[in-house]
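Sample entry (123 residues):
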Amino acid sequence: MVCDYLHEEALSGEEKVLARYLRPGLLIIDGMRMKQLPNHSGEYLFEIIMRRHEVRSTMMTTNRPLEDWGKLTGDFPSASAILDRFLQSAEIMKITGRSYRLKNAEKCSKGTTAATGSAAEKD
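Predicted structure, serialized as tokens:
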């Protein structure tokens, strides 16, 4: 999403990209970054969250603690404002346990293969 924004900003199509993320009834931002986001990302993400706030649903997944969001976005005020809007009426689901990806990798390394959609359909 942020990469779309940065690319279109360079081409002066910022409003077009913004409309793409404001339109859906439910916007899912999956896997909020492990690495720090590019410059101005916090501002762009804040703009989307702010305009969707109390109008449309937004779901975000992350494995980063809330206190890391300022570093993640590179913009502490934007991160604080994003979290303020999210946490006002959010339902936080904390999932604990091992990664399902690691579990599947362990199964494969032990000689058993995990079924995938295309292989399972062929059987």
